[in-house]
Amino acid sequence: MKDKPLRSAPTPSVRRMPRYLRCLHALRSDRVEWISCTFLAERLNVDPTLVRKDLALTGITGKPKVGYYLPDLIMAVERFIGWDNPEDAFLVGAGHLGTALLGFEGFARHGLNIVAGFDNDPTKVGTTVADKPILDAAKLPDLAQRMHIRIGIITVGARNAQAVADLMLSGGITAIWNFAPVPLDLPEDVILENEDLSGTLAVISRRLAASGI
Known about the structure:
Elements lengths: L10 H19 L4 E2 L1 H8 L3 H9 L11 E2 H11 L6 E6 L3 H7 L9 E8 L8 E2 L2 E5 L3 H8 L3 E4 L3 H13 L4 E4 L12 E4 L2 H15 L2
Parallel strand pairs: 3-4, 3-7, 4-6, 7-8, 8-9
Antiparallel strand pairs: 1-2, 5-6
Helix pairs in contact: 1-4, 2-3
C-alpha cells in the first residue's frame, strides 16, 4: 500500500522549519532533553504562538507543562520537510556556481544528494567535481528515467535555462530548483523554486545604502 500524500502546508511555515532544526540540533548538543514552544521562540526571537502552530503541522504532540522530547521533535520536523529520506538530484551547469553546489557537503544533512552534474562543454564532460561525475547533458533524460531522479538543479545562464528545464522534464523530473535569472515556462504540476541571487543582493545593497553605515 502506498503512503498517503502529505497534506499541504503554508510555505512560510515550511521555510521556518530549517531554522527550528538548527536550533534544536544545537540544543541537543547541549544535552537538552525537553523543550517548550516558549523556550524555542525565545531562542529564535519569534512569537510562541507561531512556533506552536508550525510544530503542530508536523503531527507531534507534547506533554503539558513539559513540552516536546527533543529527539522526537527533531525527527518529526525532519520527517515533515522530507529530510529523513534523502532525495537524489541532477545538476546541469558545471560552471562556478554549479561546481560550488556540487561540492557543498551540507546538502547531505538536508535530505539532498546531488549524484551527478551535466554540461555540454567537452572540456568539462568526463571530469569529476567533489567525486561526482560531470556527464554529457544529452544523457540526462535517459539517466533520470532509469535512476528515478525527481529533482533537477539548473545553474546555467539565462539563455539556456529553458532548454535545460525542457530536457529535465523529458526525463521525468518533477521538481526544479532554478538558479538561472530567468522565469521558466513549466507545466503547472511541476514544482519550481527560483533562487534569485541578484534580487537578494539588491535588497542587501539597498538596505546598506539606506542605513547610512
